[in-house]
Specification:
The complex is a heterodimer of chains A (about 325) and B (about 100).
Chain A: E1 2-7, H1 9-21, E2 25-31, H2 43-50, E3 55-57, H3 65-72, E4 77-81, H4 89-92, E5 99-103, E6 111-112, H5 115-121, E7 126-133, E8 143-150, H6 157-181, E9 198-199, H7 215-225, E10 237-241, E11 244-257, E12 265-269, E13 272-276, E14 280-289, E15 292-295
Parallel strand pairs in A: 1-2, 1-4, 2-3, 4-5, 6-9
Antiparallel strand pairs in A: 5-7, 7-8, 10-11, 11-14, 12-13, 13-14, 14-15
Chain B: H1 4-21, H2 40-54, H3 71-95
The chains are: A alpha/beta (about 325), B mainly alpha (about 100).
Chain lengths: ~325, ~100
């Protein structure tokens, strides 16, 4: 088969590695070029070149002339692996067997962006990955394969993201196996769009912690933001100590009831600082001040008071 | 007694991290994620260097965060694949 891959992130690399070992022809890899990355590095671009694939800028998928190129190359299938550019309808229509997306969420629920973070924030006990046929409207096409897996209480967004990659790439390989051997056997199940939930890019409340919320909700927000040491699409969960805005990088529940004023810093030790939520002490372990990550003990002392943002920040983010 | 292959892989990995990725590792058990040593770019590079330097192909089944948490765990993963490749080679010879 002739395959086109729009790829980003760890999942993109894993799919490319598997394709490099296989017998299919990769017509093109669309990914972010080095000059588009924050630090001038694009390992996926370079990795694709190292694997022998021709690379094109990811945003080319928005250009309808790419459809002509795919037709002239007799592209059979387009795989979209964690690439966030909206693909032009004429590009989607060009491959003989269609275009398929690996979505890191259980459709029809958790359509849209940052589904891993949203699921953790909402306290979900399970998440999933979905392969679906791509339609012009985002995350709406027929479902080919889906796998649901548990989220552990201590799982961070990074940990769940690894799970999504592992399971999602396996499903992508299964898709390739099926379409190359028996394309008519490919399951295509229409989504029940009445169950659809669409999530946006921005963190809830701009990512600011409300200490008047329950400990579960506070810690869920911290975990939902926690891609440490990878870049988090939501940045760290934020709080304020005096004039300083602090990112809360690591925190966990203690199960110890608190009757202190929410945001009050209680006992501080090498393992972290107890901070009062509405119902329970939260153990804050690691903070970010500016660009530096620091142990909570280095920044907080008993009696300090953590507060939310000065300004209401609903719907606003300064670190998306 | 420690497996000499494991020790050798660990030493090579530590060197790879230092030379190619500018990551100094304190010990085989040091947590590469918790310490902040590996950002996503470096992690992608590490995956590629592992394949190039050790000639092993990590599978998607291996792609669990715990398998990459420390030099020791990565060394164990590489050794597992090397041993599996040796076993497969032996089996092929015997079959012939």
């Amino acid at each position: 088969m002739n395959i086109v891959v729009a790829a980003q992130e760890m999942a993109g690399l894993q799919v490319l590695k598997e394709l490099a070992r296989g017998s299919h022809r990769v017509v093109a890899v669309l990914t972010s070029p080095p000059e588009a990355s924050q630090d001038g590095r694009s390992n996926l671009w370079n990795a694709a070149n190292d694997l022998g694939f021709e690379t094109f800028p990811a945003k080319l998928v928005q250009d309808p002339t790419l459809g002509d190129m795919l037709r002239s190359e007799h592209a059979d299938i387009l795989l979209n692996v964690h690439s966030l550019y909206i693909i032009h309808p004429s590009v989607l229509a060009a491959p003989r067997l269609g275009a398929f997306n690996l979505h890191p969420g259980p459709l029809p629920r958790y359509a849209g962006l940052n589904s891993v973070s949203w699921a953790i924030f909402r306290g979900e006990k399970e998440h999933g990955v979905t392969i679906h046929k791509m339609e012009p409207e985002i995350d709406t096409g027929d479902i080919v394969y889906q796998e649901i897996f548990p989220i552990a209480d201590e799982d961070t967004a990074l940990a769940v993201s690894f799970k999504c990659t592992q399971r999602g790439v396996a499903l992508m390989l299964r898709l390739l196996e099926t379409v190359s051997s028996a394309p008519d056997a490919l399951p295509l199940v229409a989504q029940d769009l009445s169950r659809r939930e669409y999530f946006g890019k921005v963190a809830p409340n701009g990512g600011w912690i409300s200490w008047t919320a329950s400990a579960e909700r506070v810690v869920n927000l911290v975990r939902a933001c926690d891609y440490f040491p990878f870049r988090s699409p939501w940045g760290e969960a934020m709080t304020r100590l005096g004039q300083n805005e602090l990112g809360v990088a690591k925190a966990s529940r203690t199960g110890l009831a608190s009757h202190a004023e929410p945001g009050t810093v209680g006992e501080v030790s090498g393992s972290g600082a107890f901070v009062a939520a509405a119902d329970e002490w939260v153990l804050v372990k690691k903070l970010k001040l500016g660009d530096k990550y620091l142990a909570a003990v280095d920044l907080l002392k008993s009696g300090d008071r953590l507060e939310p943002s000065r300004q209401p920040t609903v719907g606003v983010t300064n670190y998306a | 007694m420690p497996d000499p292959d494991y020790q050798q892989i660990q030493t090579q990995l530590t060197g790879l991290l230092a030379e190619k990725l500018n990551v100094e590792v304190a010990s085989e058990d040091a947590d590469l994620f918790e310490s902040g040593a590996l950002d996503s770019q470096k992690f992608v590079e590490l995956l590629l260097h592992i394949e190039q330097q050790f000639g092993t192909h990590t599978t998607i089944e291996d792609f669990e965060i715990e398998n990459f948490r420390s030099v020791g765990r990565i060394a164990a993963l590489i050794l597992k694949h090397k041993n599996a490749a040796c076993d497969a080679g032996t089996a092929t010879v015997q079959h012939r």
